[in-house]
Design brief:
32% of the residues lie in helices and 22% in strands. The protein is an alpha+beta fold and 442 residues long. The chain folds into 2 domains: 296 residues, Naphthalene 1,2-dioxygenase Alpha Subunit, Chain A, domain 1 (Alpha-Beta Complex), CATH 3.90.380; 113 residues, Rieske [2Fe-2S] iron-sulphur domain (Rieske Iron-sulfur Protein). Helix 6 packs across helix 10. It is globular and about 85 Å long. Its cofactor is Fe cation. This is Rieske 2Fe-2S family protein.
């Protein structure tokens, strides 16, 4: 019960606490980018300034989205010759095009004359790439085919479109805007190529797309994706297809019932993994996440709960037309993380999501649902069944990211400790983030 004396005592305390917060935050504001990173206590979250500062945001884009390999699309974005997809990352713009020989090419979306954008953001189909400004015209292989009024000494071969380093892995289109590309993309390629191969994902099409702009920093979006501490309370649709033990758990003081459930979980996992391996479907976990990684990734094949077929509310396939020529529906969830994306591939459909930072407090989250190229809507699948899990999950995550971003910008915010059982990958992401900036002298 509160008394007048206790209320008065509380009022006397409030200014001193508030003043301490103000002094703490003013001190943080004076710290450099590197000092802020180094101020993080091991096992704790990042300082709030790293989520809200414009200077930090610009450096993040430069390092993590221009100097690293980033996912920018899927091959089904440009299914036919002449199809074009534009992706903007910071001040840079990338033009993805399928040429007349069915090859996917990527270029800087900059005319070689006076720099005009060749295409605006979005998708289109062209015969050639024509600059609206002065009609400089480029073939789909990037070569300059027409430039009027430049005289006989002008050499068009010197003004081809500027190519972008590109890797197609499965259906994933990875690009790097830097000349010095991280070589460990080869590890990702070597790991994922045989895992994706049975699905024949380049013979897929986009059944549905979703774009969300989350009012939060890109790092918070990725941190949220790296843990399932929150899943049981906030993602009823997603958890329908997950085994509870995959969320992470504290192994201390388990009840007898929980111990039995854990043993059953281990047995089911082992049985499924052995069955997949016998049929040639690789499922072992590979992690390339620690501080010495540049092209960070993690992959595993998760057992799906219930009917065990797909990430749907029923846990059965949403599309009866399976990828490639797959012989079985129960192939689990082939999962892939990178530092700007997450992927779930099931026997019948895939959900591929990547993020692009727009501002310190704005992040574009773009998701694509893929099905077999010959799958027919209304006959082989219904869009609602296909999308209901991840449409709901993405919107739920949007809210979680936004309330977290707002909280990290509050003067009262002090980074809290991570759970070693359910947030170890968030802690690891923070260490990797610091290491990569350190490698660039920050």
């Amino acid at each position: 019960m509160f008394t007048a004396d206790r209320v008065q005592s509380g009022n006397n305390l409030t200014p001193s606490i508030t003043e301490r917060w103000r002094k703490t935050m003013s001190g943080v504001q004076r710290k450099s980018h590197g000092d802020l990173i180094r101020s993080r206590q091991p096992g704790h979250g990042l300082p709030g300034e790293l989520f809200g500062s414009q200077d930090v945001f610009e450096k993040d884009v430069e390092v993590f989205f221009h100097k690293h390999w980033v996912l920018v699309g899927v091959t089904a974005d440009v299914p036919d010759p002449g199809d074009v997809s534009i992706v903007d990352i910071g001040k840079a713009s990338i033009l993805i095009v399928r040429d007349d020989d069915e090859n996917i090419r990527t270029y800087r979306n900059v005319c070689r004359h006076r720099g005009a954008r060749l295409k605006e953001a979005g998708k289109s189909t062209v015969g050639m790439l024509v600059c609206l400004y002065h009609q400089w015209t480029y073939d789909l292989d990037g070569s300059l085919r027409h430039a009027a009024h430049l005289g006989k000494d002008f050499d068009p071969a010197c003004r081809s479109l500027l190519p972008v380093h590109t890797k197609i892995i499965g259906t994933h289109v990875f690009v790097c805007l830097d000349e010095n590309v991280p070589e460990d993309i080869a590890k990702l390629e070597q790991t994922m190529t045989p895992r994706f191969a049975p699905y024949d994902l380049q013979n897929s099409r986009i059944a549905f797309e979703q774009e969300i702009i989350e009012s939060g920093n890109w790092k918070l979006v990725m941190e949220n994706n790296r843990e399932c501490y929150h899943c049981s309370a906030t993602h009823p649709e997603l958890t329908a297809s997950f085994l509870a033990e995959d969320f992470g758990f504290c192994p201390e003081n388990l009840s007898e019932e929980s111990v039995r459930a854990l043993e059953e979980y281990k047995a089911r996992n082992a049985e499924c993994q052995a069955s997949w391996e016998r049929d040639g479907f690789v499922g072992s976990t590979v992690e390339w996440l620690d501080e010495d990684a540049v092209t960070q990734f993690r992959t595993q094949r998760l057992v799906i709960a219930g009917e065990g077929e797909s990430q749907t509310l029923s846990t059965k396939v949403a599309s009866t037309k399976l990828f490639g020529s797959l012989p079985r529906r129960d192939l689990g969830d082939l999962h892939l993380w990178t530092h700007n994306s997450w992927t779930h591939v099931m026997s019948d459909h895939a959900v591929i999501t990547y993020v692009i930072p727009l501002a310190p407090d704005k992040t574009l989250v773009r998701s694509k649902w893929l099905v077999h190229v010959d799958a027919v809507e209304g006959a082989d699948y219904n869009v609602s069944d296909l999308t209901e899990v991840w449409v709901a999950t993405n919107l739920q995550d949007k809210h979680l990211v936004e309330i977290t971003h707002d909280g990290t910008q509050d003067p009262a915010y002090v980074p809290g400790t991570f759970s070693p059982f359910t947030e170890a990958y968030v802690d690891q992401f923070s260490r990797w983030y610091a290491a990569r900036l350190g490698a660039h002298g920050i």
